[in-house]
Structures are given as structure tokens and as C-alpha cells.
Amino acid sequence: MTTPALLPLSGRRIPPLSLGTSSFPHHRATLRLSEKFILLLILSAFITLCFGAFFFLPDSSKHKRFDLGLEDVLIPHVDTGKGGKNLGGYLIHGQGHDEHRHREEEERLRNKIRADHEKALEEAKEKLKKSRDEIRAEIQTEKNKVAQEMKKKDSKPLPPVPIPNLVGINSEDPTDQDIREKRDKIKEMMKHAWDNYRQYGWGHNELKPIARKGHSTNIFGNSQMGATIVDALDTLYIMGLHDEFRQGQDWIDKNLDFSVNSEVSVFEVNIRFIGGLLAAYYLSGQEVFKIKAVQLAGKLLPAFNTPTGIPWAMVNLKSGVGRNWGWASAGSSILAEFGTLHMEFVHLSYLTGDPVYYNKVMHIRKLLQKMDRPNGLYPNYLNPRTGRWGQHHTSVGGLGDSFYEYLLKAWLMSDKMDTEARKMYDDAIEAIERHLIRKSNGGLTFIGEWKNGHLERKMGHLTCFAGGMFALGADGSRDDKAGHYLQLGAEIAHTCHESYDRTTLKLGPEAFKFDGGLEAAAVRQNEKYYILRPEVIETYWYMWRFTHDPKYRQWGWEAAQAIDKYCRVSGGFSGVKDVYSSSPAYDDVQQSFFLAETLKYLYLLFSNDDLLPLDNWVFNTEAHPLPVLHLANTTLSGNPAYR
Ligand code: DMJ
């Protein structure tokens, strides 16, 4: 049987490899093999001879051989073209001259090595005479020098860009005395929070106001990056607390270092640090904030190195290794986390001229656009390896919230040019209204949570921000439904106010239900806490700006008084564990967002509208104001280089 190996597809016959039956081609091949073998033997004998002869040559000849080779390579100005490669008299003359030069060179090198050795020995002897502490101090000085050098290198000014129109950074005091006094009270609360943090928690991420020491949570890993300082800067600035602002700036300039071996939340670091630094930069014009924001953004970029480009939830700032939260469905990334980077990243590209940040967030958007959405809803979980949704849970509160917020704000921040973002927002909100928004038996409008085809009639404190979002998105909404969305915003504000008003402390619980006779009330113990969150006050402020209905100032003032009464302690402000108890326990944490958001929104609620007007500023999800970029006149959005 002919084996297929003998009849290859090309049709050319291959000689058999078998040594079995003798054939002419096989015989010829055997002869060629033995000829080759003899040639190989002669060649190897010749090489062995040359090698042996070399070892019998005098030393100087060996050096010359190697030096010549070296010179050919390393000394380009020697004209080897004329003499070096030639076998004529010129070469012989050149070799004699070279020999002399090489001997001199060798001598020089030997002397240098000797001198270096002697110097090192001397230094070592000197060192040994010194005490351990002296040696340590010297090492430290050297280290500092290197660190300073690196700092200088890192702090190179970024390319100048036209700064957008920054209107409304300052504003007149309110003319109404009552409003002025309320605003002053909020400023005093800010000072109390800041001063205590400064005294007891300075440089730590947050403050423990009862224990009077620093505090940190896993979102910042084991770092001490002064989260409260960065988060509070813009609030200090708009309140006119300029000494405090300078204290913060000084700390950031000297101490804020991102080369730490720490695993941090990409989302939290983006909204609090990058957002905070960018806002501080735009408000104050101090370059240091821009430089730090860009340095930090560079440290977050490795988080995007996933098979899909959907970033990991966490990244180690030093190694760049990323991973997801252990609790997230099927190793997924979280919608509210990877979907809340857009505003800051667009600003980073704008300020640096580097499209890398813009490309990262646009890639996320494009990927989301292509995906099927169950009932038009975005699930909270997306696997960054497979690009597939995890559990089909949808929420306008935790895990989903700021994704929707950033769609709307991307459109606003682009001076309404980014119509793609507006469309995605409109589509998402329509699906949310259809499937998640309901009226309770008592007539309260609430936003529930979608869990595997079932509506849970529960709303989180976090979800209360949506009242402000609906009001902010009313203008420009599809089918001219501005009135409808403003009304929806008002209804959510009302429901959230009820969740406060129905408690003992007049502070809202973390989550509340509309089930089995319950109306905006928490049942489980672990849903009754208030941790100084801003969302309800945020919605009051937006509603105030769009309607000027005095009830929003009234509700805001009620919340401010309750915070001052029940959360204030001598060491700062603390969250409380049960808003239905008249003597609640403290959680002993002064959250950084209390200074960034809660107190800022309260202050704005009692300020004139021309302080950070909403036509010119868009607040990120941590309440850091970023200016509207008039992208129609810049290269950013339309330029193919940025796609
Ligand atoms: C803040 O860090 C941000 O508002 C975020 O979007 C979610 N909530 C906290 C404060 O409650």
C-alpha cells in the first residue's frame, strides 16, 4: 500500500527515507553523505590546529588581534576603509602605529582601575571610622537627593491649554440675613470637620472623631493619601477658607505620593482624588493640582489592561496589577465604577493633549452600546474577561447610580455636543421609568431595584441623588418632556424627605421599603444607619436651583440641624448607627465625602445661583465642579486623532 506520505499534495515525489530496499537515488545519497563527512573532518582538524597555534603565540599578538576587532567597532573615526581591511603596506604601517597606541591605552586603563580601587578602599576605611548613625544619615541624604531629582523630573510643567471660561468662582454674600446666617453656620461646620481632621487625622485618609485618630477603608488599600484633604479642597475654596486651602495645598505638594504599594479602588480614586484635584486646579489655577492629577491617572491606566478594556475595580498603584471585588457576581466589574470615569478622563485628555484617557472611556462606551440589554436595562455586573453581563440586577442606587449620572453629565460637560451620551441617557431613563419607578400605596414615588425579573420595592439613600439628576436632565429631554422630568425630580425629593422626616433623628436611613404597609421606612437593623451621606441634600439643591421653591431650603436646613445635633462630637462629625433611636451609637467615622459633598451642597443651597452656575460647571459624582468644555471649538471630540 502506498502511504499518503509518498504522494504529497503538490504531486512532487519525495525520496523514501527508509534504508530497506536499495535503489539508485538512495545509493547516491549515501555517497554524498560520506563526502560531506570527510570534508567536515578536514575542516574541524584545521580549526583545532588554528586554535592550538593561537595559544602558542606571544601575549602581545593575542591582544593586538582582539584590540583590532574592538577598534573596528568602537572607534569609528579610524579610517579602516583605507588601511584596516587592506592587505597592502598601508596596513603594516598602521599596525605598528596602533600597537604603540594600544599599549598606551592599556596602561591608562590599568592606572585608572588602580586609582579607582584605591579610592574605594580609602572611602570604605573612612566609612568604617564613622558611627552607625552617621552612616545611616549619609544614606538618607543620598536617598533624599535621588527622590528630589525624581520629583523634579515628574514635576515638569504640562503643556499649556486654553482654560475654559471659569465664571462664578466667587459670588456676593446672600442679601437675606437669615440665609446668610444659615450659610455661615454651614461654613462653621466645615471648619469644625476640617480642624479636627487636621489635628487628629492629618495625612490619613479619614478621621475617627471619637477615637481622635486617622481612619481608612479598603477602598484606599493601606495607603495614607490624605483623601479628606483632596476631597475637601474645593469646598474650602468656595467657602473662602483660604488658610485651610493653603494648608491642604502645602500637604499635597510635599507629601501626596502615588508610588505606594497599595491596592485602591479605581472608581473611588478617580471621583475623589482626580475629581478633587482637577476641581482644585480649575478653581485656584495652582499647577500642582493638575500635575498630581495627571500623575495619579497614569497609575490607574494599568487597570484597563483586561481582555475587553473594561477596567478592574482595583489596581495596585505600584505594580499595576488589577483585580475585581471578591463579592461581585462572577468576577464582574461594577457598572457604577467603570461607568463613572468619563468626566474626569475627558478633562485629563483636554489638559494634557494626550488622547489616551479619552480613548479608554470611549472604548467602554462603545462596548456598552453594542451589548444587548435585558428589557432595555443595564445590569450592574459586567465580566471584564468575557465581556458578558453577570447577574441581571439593575439599580439606580448602589452599583449602578453614577453610570446614568455620567451619561447625562458627559452631554452637559461637552456643551451639549456629545449627543451620543444624551441618547444613551434618554434610553436608559425610559427603561428605568418603565420597569423600576412605581408609586407606593401611600402615594410616594420610589425607584426600586430589579433583581432577575422581579422588582424589589426598596430604595437606597444613594438612589435619592436621582431626583437631582432628573431635574438636571429635564432641559433637553426627548419629546419635550422637561416638565415631566422636573416633576419626577420633585417627587423623588419628596419621597426622600419623607424617609428623613419619619425617623426619630430626622436623618435618613441607608435603605427604606414600600412593602407590606411600610412607607419609606427601614426594617432591618443594618439598613438604619446614616453615615453623613449627601444624596438627599444634593437633590434639594438641584431642585432649589431649578424651581426656587423655598421648601428645598427648609428641608436642607432641617437636615443640617439634625446633623449638627446628632452627628457632631467634639472631635468632628460621626455617622450614627440607628436613625430611629433617640440615643444612637456612633460609627466613629468622618467620611471624606461629608466635606466634599454634604457640606458643599448645603453651602450652595444657601448661596446665590451665580456661585458655580450650572450652565458653566458640571459637578462630578463626588460634587467636584468641572467646567463645561466648549468642545465645538476644540480638537477633542470631533478630531479623529482622539478616537
Ligand atoms: C460618594 O462617594 C459619591 O457620591 C458616590 O457616587 C456614591 N456615594 C458616595 C457618598 O454617599
From TrEMBL:
Which domain of life does this protein belong to?
A: Eukaryota
Look up the record and report any one GO term of the cellular component aspect: extracellular exosome
For this chain's UniProt record, which GO biological process terms are given?
Answer: carbohydrate metabolic process
Instruction: Locate the region Disordered.
Output: 143-176
- Pathway it belongs to? Protein modification; protein glycosylation
Does Calcium appear among the keywords? yes
Here the disulfide bonds are C464-C496
The keyword Calcium belongs to this UniProt entry's keyword annotation: yes
Q: Which Pfam families match?
A: Glyco_hydro_47
Query: Which coenzyme or cofactor does it need?
Result: Ca(2+)
Q: Which UniProt keywords apply?
A: Calcium, Disulfide bond, Glycosidase, Hydrolase, Membrane, Metal-binding, Signal-anchor, Transmembrane, Transmembrane helix
Residues the entry annotates as binding Ca(2+):
T621
Subcellular localization: Endomembrane system
Name the top EC class: hydrolase
The Swiss-Prot or TrEMBL record describes its family as follows: Belongs to the glycosyl hydrolase 47 family.
What is the name of this protein? alpha-1,2-Mannosidase
Give the species.
Answer: Pelusios castaneus (West African mud turtle)
